Amino acid sequence: MDSCGCSISEDTINGGGKSKGQGLSGACPTNGVIGKKVDTQTVKAILALPLNLLTSDAYRFCADPDCSTVYYSEDGQQLFDEADLRERVYQKHADDKEISICYCFRHTVGNIGSEIAESGKSTVVAEITAGIKAGQCACDIRNPQGDCCLGNVRALVKDLSN
Ligand SMILES: [Zn+2]
């Protein structure tokens, strides 16, 4: 079994959930945008805080770069921003060359950009795909978005190759 769902889930977080949902269930209390559900295991893995602080068993991820909140409980009572986390979040700093885009194999936006600038192409998608096939990825506990980075990486490579 592919426990992180890498081979099937390649959609980018940025693609969906942009509709405003102020006050709706599932909306980020900070900006009112509906966030994607994340496994509690992801929140536990990424949080730098003592886990006995967790008050909910259902959390969502806010991918909006302009919103300081990263995780929030389904009931809106609990918020975590980047200062509470062990990782900086790609979606919040997509323009930062130092930011990780692939948390399993440690590729950064800058590394991928340099490779494309030097060689005109990128081997990163093939490398990540090989790592997934070899069972070496752990997106559910390493990537703050809680699932595979490949959609984000593909989008970045396409963007930088144009
Ligand atoms: Zn938010």
UniProtKB/TrEMBL annotation:
CDD domains: CopZ-like_Fer2_BFD-like (cd10141). It holds the Pfam family zf_CopZ. Residues 27-85 form the CopZ zinc binding domain. InterPro entries: BFD-like_2Fe2S-bd_dom_sf, Znf_CopZ. This is CopZ zinc binding domain-containing protein.
